[in-house]
Amino acid sequence: MEANTRSTGRLPAAFLTPGSSSFMDFLTGHQPDMLPGNRQLPPTQGVIEAPHGTTIVATTYPGGVVLAGDRRATMGNVIAQRDIEKVFPADEYSAVGIAGTAGLAVEMVKLFQLELEHFEKVEGATLSLEGKANRLSTMIRSNLGMAMQGLAVVPLFAGYDVDRAKGRIFSYDVTGGRSEEKGFAATGSGSVFARGAMKKLYRDDLTEEQATTLVVQALYDAADDDSATGGPDVARRIYPIVTVISEEGFRRLTEEETSEVARSILARRLEQPDGPRAALL
Q1: Does the annotation mark 54 as catalytic?
Q2: What is the pTM assigned to this prediction?
Q3: Digit-coded pLDDT (tens) for 128-158
Q4: Which of 3.30.70.360, 3.10.580.10, 2.20.25.90, 3.60.20.10 would CATH assign to domain 49-269?
Q5: Under a CB-based contact definition with an 8 Å cutoff, are residues 175 and 144 in contact?
Q6: Which candidate in 86, 123, 143, 229 could, as Cys together with 190 as Cys, close a disulfide (CB 3.0–4.6 Å)?
């Protein structure tokens, strides 16, 4: 499939033949070994140690959706990286947060970005948010063989549905099973604690500022109970990645904006170490 323009000056026929609008289908037909799920792993004994990304959270608000992630990657009981990137734009109106085997997850996100771009170029239109969620589900399912060997990828997908004029969140399992979440969602090793925090603080009428504060609060609570989740690191100036997706498109909060939210939460935690209290009734 590789282009050999030095000898003929022309692209191979595979690049010129009309076909599917799916970039994955194109690779499957012409060079399947390039797909992550088709790679053969050597026989191994025991658990494969590889850097893993942890805790991704998302919440909707009337104007869109907020997707955020902590910055820590772990390898067993060791912190492999303190400032890993876990949240990526998929296209103008959607984003993916990765949890699981970091290397495979980043590769899957890049392939997903190509998939959406390829569809738009071939069809002349963008996929619906539902269609994007389904395409990502197919990619996760193709990685099932590696997931069974301990190299799982479990992302969180969020975006602004321009047809319904609202933010939506989709979660997945290792088999590619897809579920739409209502209000908020979390994945990764600290998801249990993050979900518990959001469950008590979420409301339907949050502003964008309140939604961004909510996800950072949830990540702080996850880091408080889960050793694989990293909280705001003021000394190293490492803060969670927080993204907002609205009718204006994808936007990542600047470091100044994120640090301001994180520092305000840290200041409040000096008085209330366990975080804000929800009303009993």
Answers
A1: yes
A2: 0.83
A3: 999 999 999 998 988 887 787 778 889 999 9
A4: 3.60.20.10
A5: yes
A6: 229
